[in-house]
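Slide 14.
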Amino acid sequence: MTVLYKLSKEQLSKQHHYDFGLRALKSVLVMAGSLKRGSPDMPEQLVLMRALRDMNLPKFVFDDVPLFLGLINDLFPGMDCPRVRYAQFNDTVEGDLQENGYQVLTEASEQVDKVVQLYEVVMTRHTTMVVGQTGGGKTVILNTLARAQTKLGKKTTLHTINPKAITVAELYGVLDPDTRDWTDGLLSNIFREINKSLADGRDEARYLVFDGDVDAVWVESMNSVMDDNKLLTLPNGERIRLMDHCKLLFEVYDLQYASPATISRCGMVYVDSRNLGYQPFVSTWLSKRGSDAERDTLANLFGKYADPAIAWVLEGIDGEDLVRRPKQIVPATNLNMAAQLCMMFDATLKSDRPELADPVVIEALFVMAMVWSVGSVLVQSPETPDRDRFDAFIKCVQAYGCARGRRTFTGPLQGQRTWHVFGGSSTGSTGCSSRVVGQSRHSSGSVAIGVWFGTPARTSTGHSEWQQQRGTASGDSKRGRGPWMRARDQHARACCVACSRHVGSCQPDN
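Slide 15: predicted structure.
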């Protein structure tokens, strides 16, 4: 045990919620004793390995999990003990998630496994912190645990408060120094109520959830509750004991401002947003779309555009290459970007016009929504032109901005000559006010999609690019071969679609 904790402290990353002290050792011994009593015939080495793994694995961040498992395998060679599945509890958790419209994720460190980890930590600790980024699923895990235990016959109630929304006096209560009048606080009142004794034979659990930042301003007064004393001492001298049917739960983003004394007293469950990802949210969103054809189209668009764009923004992954990760104005997770993309697309596609059901039009609107959701958090400055880089990346994904396999430079919208590829041939332009944002497929071959802002510029033939994209410049207007769609917006002049035999004469800039 001591060797494993020493190696973990030296080799794993430094996180505010990590603790490898005596209290962590005590929790491992408590769980090992419980396992040994439940399975007397299990070898002691296997008992210790399972206790060390199950009590420490929940708190590790995404990158430290394989390192810790490697240390476990080196210290216990040849021993393999799979995760124990609580048949009735796991089935209840999976059923509850499905009933509430969530995706059932059963792999290691995914949603169901995190509920089981929280369940195991709560059994050994009376104070547990659920730590992780917004959008990682902390609230879903807490609510699922409460509902699952209730369905199994143990009524579970969550009492949630935000400790940073009120002052410390309003939280714990205040004693008037002159009149000695006592004014009860919000926390002291709830704490007193939930710790009242239960009736004989009643199986119930009451969890007090602190949903807010943890800092020394208010949480230091809870240290006597979080250790083995389990006593809350109020300013008026009243002492309230935490009963066995009550637990303390913290739902917090990080523990940057918490003291080591507070961290060591709590069990930890870290919910990493990278474990959950955004695919469950997208799958649920797609399941609510109107038709199977639309769902299939949007699923393909997510695979073509959104997946590589989010990977490029968050990890700097450009195909098989690793590039400089762009800077963000506001830190955002992959789920934040995917949710904003879906909401923006929903707001754009609320019209009932039949032409909006065209897959080509859907692709154009999807690209617009993606640029203003995934790319909206990027920094644009002379020193950090990351929005220009993102623009070039998206055009290369769409097959624009790539000439002979090389990505072209994306310059200003006005006054600079740039080169693009349309239908296999490159054309140049100077200062055109149009802006191409996509490429898709049409029944007649490759098509170009463009969203025009401002007034269309005129070419040397005297025809506007808008007329050329409709096919009037090439004589196809009489035959009606210029499929197009016009977005009726005051700012967007048009969103047009033209066959590849027409785009050779169009000269849009960027």
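Speaker note: The chain has a mean pLDDT of 78.
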